[in-house]
Amino acid sequence: MVMRACIRCGRPVAKGNRCALHRIPTRGRHYTQNARTIVVNASICGICGEGPRIDDPWVADHIKPRVHGGSDELDNLRPAHRSCNGRRGQALREWIR
After folding, report:
1. Is-contact 85 61, C-beta < 8 A?
2. Is residue 79 a contact partner of residue 40, using CB atoms and an 8 Å limit?
3. pLDDT tens digit string along 63-90?
């Protein structure tokens, strides 16, 4: 078995890329329902401020990313274009104000 190092602390990990201390919790059923609610009611992208685009579907963006302790609750989700959300990634500067 090949051991890897945790990407946060360097501890040996047998499966995945994070140790038990830094593992991101799995998503529950409520995330899917909340994300669907956000996408269905979307009118403006929470990142760029533009309206709908033909070739760029809406997705639910975490205001505070999950890897930084954000939740899957409605108050931490906003609509975003898929391209905007992908470009933002796990950036912190959008929610540290």
Report:
1. yes
2. no
3. 988 878 888 999 999 999 999 998 877 7
- CA angle, residues 87, 66, 89, in degrees to nearest 5: 10
Q: Position 61: which residue type?
A: D
Give the span between the Cα atoms of 91 and 96, in whole angstroms: 10
Three-state secondary structure string covering 38-96 = HHHCCCCCCCCCCCCECCECEEEEECCCHHHCCCCCHHHEEEEEHHHHHHHCCCCCCCC
Q: Which residues is 12 bridged to in the sheet?
A: 5
How far is residue 3's CA from residue 39's CA, in Å, rounded to a whole number?
Answer: 39
Q: Provide the pLDDT confidence category of residue 17 given band limits of 50, 70 and 90.
A: confident
Backbone φ and ψ of 85, nearest 5°: -65, -40
Give the 3-state secondary structure of residue 34.
helix
Cα 53 to Cα 6: distance, rounded to the nearest angstrom: 38
